[in-house]
């Protein structure tokens, strides 16, 4: 089951490395946009109106010429470097996600049939779940993910708010929403685009993990 170090550690190192690539890619995109804003007029006009994807592709192929002034040449080099970095990091993140998908399909394909759960969310679920009995009720898993409601500190004692002890991550919200969706009749009738077979199994996250452990 997922507690075995080999499986959990495989998910952990791939997920951590992909996240690092995604964060670095975001930083490179921000750098590229800042460079475009401060670029010489000729370059700004050349890149103005392009979509972000087109800007990256265009800047990755820019060439500096000796006839250009030093500011223009160095800006071109900076733009090209940032754009090529973005392309490399996107490719790296895509390759790592493919590795994660292959692992999930081997170890817990049931998770991919849940609505809203892809390879990244599934990997995080398996890392967090770890072993039988760690999260007996699904409410305990939601609390661990930081997505469980708590009583709001207001005049209305019946109201609730999101837990402030742990800010919900996107993955936590996906996990919680998948559990809720799997319990809603209308959601069970809808097809899921996340699973490799293109359908929703109608089972909850807990049920999928139980099936994984039973193998």
Automatic annotation (TrEMBL):
- Write the signal peptide boundaries: none
Q: Which GO terms describe its biological process?
A: DNA transposition
Which intervals of the chain form a coiled coil?
A: 76-106
Region Disordered, as annotated, extends over: 151-215
Record-level Gene Ontology MF annotations: DNA binding; transposase activity
Which InterPro entries does the UniProt entry name for this protein? Answer: Transpos_IS110, Transposase_20
- Name the UniProt key words of this record, in alphabetical order: Coiled coil
The record, for PANTHER family, names: TRANSPOSASE FOR INSERTION SEQUENCE ELEMENT IS1111A, TRANSPOSASE FOR INSERTION SEQUENCE ELEMENT IS1547
* Protein name, per record: Transposase
């Amino acid at each position: 089951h997922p507690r075995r170090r080999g499986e959990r550690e495989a998910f952990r190192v791939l997920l951590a490395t992909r996240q690092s690539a995604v964060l670095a890619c975001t930083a490179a995109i921000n750098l590229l946009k800042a460079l475009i804003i401060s670029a010489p007029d000729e370059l700004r006009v050349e890149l103005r109106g392009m979509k972000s994807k087109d800007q990256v592709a265009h800047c990755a192929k820019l060439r500096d010429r000796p006839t250009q002034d030093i500011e223009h040449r160095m800006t071109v080099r900076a733009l090209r470097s940032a754009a090529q970095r973005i392309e490399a990091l996107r490719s790296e993140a895509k390759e790592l996600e493919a590795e994660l998908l292959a692992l999930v399909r081997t170890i817990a394909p049931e998770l991919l049939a849940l609505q809203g759960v892809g390879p990244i969310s599934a990997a995080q679920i398996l890392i967090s779940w770890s072993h039988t009995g760690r999260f007996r009720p699904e409410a305990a898993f939601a609390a661990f993910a930081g997505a469980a409601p708590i009583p709001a500190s207001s005049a209305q004692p019946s109201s609730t708010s999101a837990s402030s002890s742990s800010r919900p991550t996107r993955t936590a919200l996906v996990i919680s929403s998948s559990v809720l969706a799997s319990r809603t009749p209308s959601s069970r009738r809808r097809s899921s685009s996340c699973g490799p077979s293109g359908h929703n199994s109608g089972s909850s996250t807990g049920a999928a993990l139980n099936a994984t452990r039973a193998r």
